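Morning F.,

Quick status update on the modeling queue. The single chain you submitted on Monday has been processed. Sequence for confirmation:
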Amino acid sequence: MPVTYTVKQVADLLGYSTNSIYTFLKEKRIKGVRVGKGRFRIPQSELDRLLLTTKTKGGTSKSKSQEVIPVATEIPSLLQLAHPTGVVEPQHGYSPITGLIDGFGRRAVDVPSLFDWFLGVASIVLGLTLLVFSKSQEESGVFRFMPWMLPVRISFILGGFGLLLTDVIGEVRSRWHMIFHAVLTAAYVAFTLFMFAIGDGDGASIFGLLGFTIVVSYVLGMGGVASLSLYLWFLSLFMPFVYVLWPFDFHAPPLWFSLATINTGLFLAFWVVFSVLAVGLLWWGYHRKRVVFWVLMGFATVCLIGTSIWYAQNTFWNRAFFTLTLAVFTLFAPAWGAFRFAHKKDRRIVFTLFGYLLLLFIVGINVLWFMQGNVIEFASGQLLNKVNYSRVIVETALTSVKGSLESASQNLLLQKAITDEDPEVLDGILRGLYEGSKDMRRILVVSSSGDILSAYPFDEALSGQNIAYRDYFTNTVVAKKTVISDMFESIGTSPRPVVAIATPFITVDGEVDGLIVGSLDLESLGNRLQQIASVQDGEYITVVDETGKRLIHPQKELIGTTVTQENPVLLGAGGKHGIGEWETIDGIRSMQAYDTIGPTRWGIAIYAPLPSVLKSTRASSMVIFSMILVSVGLIGAFLLLYQARATRSPVA
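Structure tokens below.
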């Protein structure tokens, strides 16, 4: 009578749970004879086929009557999908170094690659955030690379989806799998070069190290968990060096920046030693002591979630979602070894759950994008109203000073005092004009030859000065009408930027008999304008003249300096109005509403930092992040419960 075995005996010999053996019987992957309700007997011949019985040292096959348990311990089953040492993932893809090695049956293993799933999901998330948030501060300084950004974004999205698809259909060692890896590698390299070109060392390192990890994993033929751990180690080792090389990179978290600047040499030396010890502990925990691996990966998860929240608080959405994705897969990495993928249903569960996670990220990104769009639209309307109100204030100040000077030029008493060069009368009239206007800093009376006859408030340094060389003097004499000057530096005891409004005294013969000149009180006017801006949110107002020189700015040291030619405020100086985005002098991506000041060719603009504009979306991002993390926890709990149920052995 042929030797037969119970389901439990076969499960013990093959190293599987009885549930898995029942599943194999149901799927007819194992042949058995039903001997009762729920009971099967499996013949020796079927077990021999599964165990791949080898020959003895003497060249003869082992007898069927021999104990088969030693054979099971001696020869690994082709169905065994988890490496017994705890290294649970196989090599994925052909490796030039290890491609000919077939140790421990790993080439026959069909386990989903955790690194491939991280790479695919993270690339899709990155490409989508770059696409939908393309007009936010994520694009800071990348304007000259804009024609190349769209292909990079599409490569991230299509390469990620393609990589996941090859894993779903079980083509992890196909040519398409290698092609999608190559596409993503090229996309990360290109994006890294963009980051380097704009001096964004933070972004260049995060994305460049991932591209480098892809190449290293291919060369060494590393598995998913090992590749993910390698990427984490690269980040922990190299990021401190980045914040030393790019100390003014505003993307850098403040904790890293402060640590890196305390004592640079000591900090870097300590960090190198720490990283080497960390990778040693990581390797030891991965291969020998899994609890150490759990602790290290848990610590890394907490750090990544904190970094992700920091990025979200500063509205760097591509880095926020990318870092959160890395945190999620880091959280899964230690538990990955607990799963056995005995049949297609196990793989389908993993694909379904990770697919749900990807969908959750996509929905979260689009919800945030929709909310951010509404916030920006509302903020744009407010900024346009503020810049319009500010324009009216400046125009009113100019009109007021101009009107006062033109009225004074018709004063016959003032004209006679100029002709007689009577300083007492001149001083009295100028004092009345000055005190009647809140927009003048100083008022002068100048002879037709350019000599200053009187000034109020009095400045001894002005006595005897001649201003005939000033452009506004010449232009006023030639035009015989009121002229508003460009910015220049005063000649008093405390030189400062000045904008002068000059009005001529015209005689009955039509000749210019002198000028009355009032300088605009830019400081007082600037203080009034800044009250319109929301200073606590980082808003501020600036005014530039036709040449682009700053007339009004909250940073006094910048007054008199020229803005860059790409600054949208120059559109206001060119007669246009509207709203756009620009990077401020502090390197902060901001919204900018601009307009033209009527009596002049000046431009006025109000700046609002995007992080402040989008501050209402920060709470929304925290809700979305919390929802994603809760879902991750539920997915992890489901997988662990599923695995626990799958490994329970019912009585056969």
